[in-house]
Amino acid sequence: MAHVVVLGAGLGGMPAAFELRAALRPAHSVTVINAIDRFQFVPSNPWLAVGWRDRDSITLPIGPALAKKGIAFIAQAATRIDAEGQAVELADGQRVPYDYLVIATGPRLAFEEVPGSGPLAGGHTQSICTTDHAAQALEVYERFVGDPGPAIIGALPGASCFGPAYEFTFIFSRDLQKKRLRHKVPITFVTAEPYIGHLGLGGVGDSKSMLESELRNHDVKWICNARVTKVEAGKMFVTELDDMGQVKREHELPFKYSMMLPAFKGVDAVAGVEGLCNPRGFVLIDEHQRSKKYRSIFAAGVCVAIPPVEATPVATGAPKTGYMIESMVSAIVENIAAELDGRPATAKATWNAVCLADMGNTGAAFVALPQLPPRNVNWFKKGKWVHLAKIAFEKYFLYKMKTGHSEPFYEKTVMHALGITRLIGR
Ligand SMILES: Cc1cc2nc3c(=O)[nH]c(=O)nc-3n(C[C@H](O)[C@H](O)[C@H](O)COP(=O)(O)OP(=O)(O)OC[C@H]3O[C@@H](n4cnc5c(N)ncnc54)[C@H](O)[C@@H]3O)c2cc1C
């Protein structure tokens, strides 16, 4: 009987484990391996970074949740994948053999590409990419509100995940307004995107004018085509390019607080596998989410290689959002289940981009179907309903992870109402 290993228990890996368990016959076993023992709901990190959430409310212990469904869990970092030998090697020396491996390890945060960036030793900017980073960002923010000054928020060259940078800008601004401190904090949005609202997607609907308008309404200045070259304590060095990629202006921007999203790469254990990944360590897959080189390996989520939507003066990547990740997971589960039943693996994910971005008291949602333009559905809308929907998304997703439900009926219904399906042709 087959052993399916899911590597990474984030937004992709946890649902993958639950869906696999539900889809496979009981004789097959499922094991999840994750570097830490708690699931983190990454989309809530911007709230944690301003104190609107605490760590416990957006994380949960992985082991007990998986155990309820008969899924084994190993809380260890993978150090190496022996793709030829079909085994994962762990930091404690264990070797876990598999018949199928589902890689869902998310991003490695490439702060090293911009000297002085990031929240680790020697870095001067904050991050909201992990719960630990967001908690650290909160500590810095709490000191900052006692001695406010200029703030810089945005995305470094090569970034692909721009939505949370906008989201955090509006949440940060809103929290300072609540504290009656906003007038003491000039905010500059610094982004690798060629224009506001590009989002790594070539824009979605009217995202350019709507997000520009929102930034203006929040008194936020911006610099696009921004190549941040280095960060020193309290100072960011930015080369602004023009549309032709020529230097337009050099900036030295002072700041007392900064949160910059980094470029992503694949995690080392995955990137190191011969022939598995592109040069940035993202897994090269076919239309069925399967490794182009290793037939027993599938991949979902941020770890997957997706080409940029278009060339931009400063490098940008295409985002991988939650719903798109779910669609990848559904395709993988269906394909592994089919093969184990002796049928061909034919399921293909839709890769539709659906995103809810909170703005503190309102929010913006976009739907890009398909992700790459030209699109059949291409809209970007703002309203308080998005803020409420984002809260519901958080509560609902955490509930699903606690109880092991992967896709209860009403979620399907809502998505169908929007004309969104997870698998092509369904
Ligand atoms: C701040 C932020 C906000 C976001 N908000 C939204 C949003 O509102 N809506 C949306 O649709 N998308 C959002 N996204 C994009 C995307 O949905 C998330 O990044 C999502 O968490 C990606 O899921 P994933 O499973 O690929 O990776 P992750 O959720 O990051 O999970 C990866 C897991 O792999 C584990 N891991 C990594 N390396 C190893 C290893 N070597 N061994 C074992 N385990 C390992 C990690 O510990 C982690 O648990 C956001 C992204 C960010 C950064």
Q: Helices and strands: which structural class?
A: alpha/beta
Q: Which strand order does the major sheet show? A: 5-2-1-9-19
Helicity range of the residues? 25-40%
* DSSP helical segment count: 10
Which ligands, by name, code or SMILES, are bound?
A: flavin-adenine dinucleotide
How many strand units? 22
Low-confidence stretches: none
User: Please, what is the average pLDDT?
Assistant: 93
Biggest β-sheet description: 5 strands, parallel
* Radius of gyration, CA atoms, in whole angstroms: 21 Å
Shape: globular
Report, as a whole number of angstroms, the end-to-end distance. 30 Å
Tell me the fraction of residues in β-strands, as a range. Answer: 15-25%
Descriptive notes:
The structure is a single chain. It is built from ten helices and 22 strands. With 426 residues, the protein is an alpha/beta fold. Strands 5-2-1-9-19 form a five-stranded parallel sheet. Strands 13-12-11-17 form a four-stranded parallel sheet. Strand 15 and strand 16 (247-254) form a beta hairpin. The longest helix has 20 residues, at 384-403. The chain is globular, with a radius of gyration of 21 Å. Bound molecules: flavin-adenine dinucleotide.
